[in-house]
Each structure stands twice: as C-alpha cells, then as structure tokens.
Design brief:
EC number: 1.2.1.11
Distance between the termini: 6 Å
Helix content: 25-40%
Structural class: alpha/beta
Keywords: Amino-acid biosynthesis, Diaminopimelate biosynthesis, Lysine biosynthesis, Membrane, Methionine biosynthesis, NADP, Oxidoreductase, Threonine biosynthesis, Transmembrane, Transmembrane helix
InterPro entries: Asp_semialdehyde_DH_beta (IPR005986), NAD(P)-bd_dom_sf (IPR036291), Semialdehyde_DH_NAD-bd (IPR000534), Semialdhyde_DH_dimer_dom (IPR012280)
Bound molecules: 3-amino-D-alanine
Number of helices: 10
Strand content: 15-25%
Strand order of the largest sheet: 5-2-1-6-7-8
Shape: globular
Mean pLDDT: 97
Low-confidence stretches: none
Largest sheet: 6 strands, parallel
Radius of gyration: 21 Å
Subunit structure: Homodimer.
Family: Belongs to the aspartate-semialdehyde dehydrogenase family.
C-alpha cells in the first residue's frame, strides 16, 4: 500500500522545496498532509498539483500518518518528533535535535542507506546542509583511499538561516545599491540598518560565524561538520577542522576541502571516482573556465565538484571545491530520499 506522508514545517523555505520535489518525483505516497504552526493553519499550498490546506501542529495531525518529514527548529522537533514516533510514525527530522543521538541513524542515502533501517526511536536524522554538500563525494573517495583528515572552509548561503536570512540579504543589497560602500573601514556598518540573523553586515562582506559559540571558540556549525561527518562515515577518529563563513549568496553552500587519506592519491583517479559517485557531478576543467559556482548549482539535485588537485606537499591529500544547493540536497531532497527509502519498506511489507 502507499504510505501517507506528513510534511511538518510546510510553509518554510525548505518546506517550499519539499513540496516542489514531492510534485515532480515519482509519486510513492498516499495522502500528503501539510502541517505547520497554528498561525499558518488554514493557508492553502499546492503539492502534486492539488491545493491543500495546512493543518496546525497537534497530536491529531499525525492520526493515520505513516511517515513524517520534519523541517522545524530544534526545540519544536525535540518535543514533537517523539510524539509522532509514539503514534507509530516514522520521522525524518531535518533539525539538529537528534543527529548525535546514538539511537537515531544519521542518513545520506548514497552513503549509508541501510542505517535508516535501524531506528530504535522511530526517528531518522537528516544531516546538516553543510555536511550534505561535501559528504557524498568524500564518501566515494574514502572508499578508495581511506579518509583520515578534513580541513574545510565552508562558504555558506544566506538561506541557511531561513527565509529571514534571504530577506535580510536582499534588503541589504537594496541599501547599498548605487553607493560606494565597502571601500572604507567599517562603512558597511554605517549603512546597513539590520543584520537580521547574521553577526555582521553580510552584503559585500564575509562573516566568519554560523550558529552558537561553543567551547574553544568553535561555532556550533563547525562542530556539526566535524561530528556529523564522523557519524555518517563511521570514522570516530576522523580529524576535522572546519571554518564556517556566511557569504552574500542567496542559496547554495560552497566548500573548499583539503582531504587527507591513508594512501597516495592521483588526480585522474580521484576525478574518475567523483564522476561516478552517486549524486555528484564533476565539473572540473579550469583551462576552459569550468568549475562549480553557487549560481551553477542552485536549484539542481546533485552536488558539484571541481578544482580537484593533489596537494602540493602531501601525495596522500586532495584539495577540491564543492557546491550544493543547501535547501535541496542540503535539506529537502536528502529528507525526501530517506522518506522514499521508508516508503519502499511499506510497499515490500504491504
Ligand atoms: C546554516 N547549516 O547554513 C546551517 C543551518 N541550515 O545556517
């Protein structure tokens, strides 16, 4: 039978991408129920060509639901995912609430799909969008060469901070249009009226901060890159140093990755591995001006890898550049792919 699906957080930036994907991918679902906060209840959104009324988040909203994709803040997910799971719903949660819970699998279908089957809490966690941008290609390289260390600079889009991030950036662009700000020390701070969710003016700038302050001066985002990469790859000793920087791009994260392996690598072999990696597009011909940029990757399903080169001072290391749409494969698409894995169980088990 076709399982029913609830989309919890249907009215957010990721929710919009979720509904779009559910409308164009092979339809494996019965009822699709749209759930959001009580203030959004009653809104009508279109999914699979059908205008559907949004219902408020409540225990009853999960009656008759088999699978639920959550895209809500951590505190909402922490409260409501267990309530849904207690009603027998399989929850695919895009928040950070359960990702490091040892009884919750952290799943990237191209990398560790079988992990989704072992879900003692009835919850499957969707990884952080920054991690999802790089992990597919790295997993393929790890299979061949044995990954031992990552040094990552992540250039993260404004929509990683939600619709308010996008609205803030666009408002700042309007404020500086036609001016010469960005040339004098601190002049942006004098012109930009609202930093929104960012720690400093974002337009014409780079802000080396995302998330909350943790021990040692690391950001929560940087710790997610380290801890989630280790869990997904099953490498508890993987050395990871990440620096997460917000840049004035609307959507699509970019990462400069230095990856160290156990064995010597070759550029040609690495390119071949990446070309054949599921969910990855190799776009790497600098002589022809071909390398990924956020604007080439936005709105597409795969992650895009380029600038592949062997480190000059370490024959066991590769440097590469990756772009991925942080709302799509970085959030909605990966969650839908996990939900489709669960849906396949229903069709197998009847
Ligand atoms: C960000 N990765 O970019 C975080 C959450 N989406 O803000």
């Amino acid at each position: 039978r076709r399982p029913s699906l609830a989309v919890v957080g249907a009215t957010g930036a990721v929710g919009a991408v979720l509904l779009g994907l559910l409308s164009i991918r092979r339809d494996v679902w019965g009822e699709i129920r749209l759930v959001a906060s009580s203030r959004s209840a009653g809104r009508r959104l279109t999914v699979r060509g059908v205008e559907t009324e949004v219902v408020g988040l409540s225990e009853e909203a999960f009656d008759g639901i088999d699978v639920a994709i959550f895209d809500v803040p951590d505190d909402i997910a922490a409260r409501w995912a267990p309530i849904a799971a207690a009603k027998g719903v399989v929850v695919v949660d895009n928040s950070g609430a359960f990702r490091m819970d040892q009884d919750v699998p952290l799943v990237v279908p191209e990398v560790n799909a079988p992990a989704a089957l072992i879900r003692p809490r009835g919850i499957i966690a969707n990884p952080n969008c920054t991690v999802l941008t790089m992990i597919g290609g790295l997993a393929a390289l790890h299979s061949e060469y044995g990954l031992s260390e990552l040094v990552v600079a992540a250039y993260q889009a404004a929509s990683g901070a939600g619709q308010s991030g996008v609205d803030t950036l666009r408002a700042q662009v309007a404020e500086v249009a036609g001016t010469s700000v960005g040339e004098q020390t601190g002049d942006l701070r004098a012109v930009v009226s609202d930093n929104g969710p960012f720690a400093a003016p974002l337009v014409l700038n780079a802000v080396p901060w995302s998330g909350t302050l943790e021990d040692g001066g690391w950001s929560s985002e940087e710790l997610k890159v380290r801890n989630e990469s280790r869990k997904i790859l099953g490498l508890p000793g993987l050395k990871v140093s990440a620096t997460c920087v917000r840049i004035p791009v609307v959507t699509t994260h970019s990462l400069a990755v230095h990856a160290v392996f156990e064995r010597e690598v070759s550029q040609a072999a690495a390119r071949e591995i990446l070309q054949n990696a599921p969910g990855v597009v190799l776009y790497d011909d600098p002589a022809a001006g071909e390398f990924p940029t956020p604007n080439d990757a936005v709105g597409t399903d795969p992650v895009w890898v380029g600038r592949v080169r062997v480190a000059l001072d370490d024959p066991t290391a590769l440097d590469l550049f990756v772009c991925g749409d942080n709302l799509r494969k970085g959030a909605a698409l990966n969650a839908v792919q996990i939900a489709e894995l669960v849906a396949a169980e229903f069709s197998l088990l009847g």
